[in-house]
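Sequence in, structure out.
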Amino acid sequence: MIRFDIVTIFPKALRPYADASILGRAQKKGVIKIELTDLRDFAEDRHRKVDDRAYGGGPGMVLKVGPIFRAVRFLKSKAASRKSRFGSRVILFSTRGKKFNAKEAKRLSRYRQLIMICGRYEGVDERVAEYIADEEISVGDFVLAGGELPALILTEAVSRQIKGVLGKNESLEEIKGFYPVYTRPEMFLPQPGHRSGKWRVPKTLLSGNHRLIEKMRKGE
């Protein structure tokens, strides 16, 4: 089983998605585990403050290193294989990080625990990248308000690589390939007089000739 630990200040926003569809079923089967950790639980003041102004000035607030350090230390203690090379991996989401793709998802699926740090506001104290995170990852050439969506993206992409998460291993696009798919009805009429007329399923898919269908899907 692989454990996904997401450190965020908005755990309630992530839970509905984490418990839905494929991810929800995989958790019920015991194939994966998704834990959402509220960073504010690791603050040291009664106001649960986890951010502060940046040294040197500048707009926005910065997430403090202390709460993140304590959160990660606590979560690492939950790892099933702390001494294993592929025990825990700590990830910080950053626009300057390594680009996330299918190859990276497969690499990360070897670990037994992925701890993901979700930044917010103006960013995260640089000491988190220097001393706490094992790597920085970017999900694309754009900026989001925080790391919560990247964490869900990574969790789902990595989970799909785990045996038992998908109903059939052949469902992986890396195995079956990428091609257009259709379902019923065979012919769809958007509305009478629509300029594009009738939308039909390609005849090859209705032929029952699996050799021709395979050739079509391969673009031959």
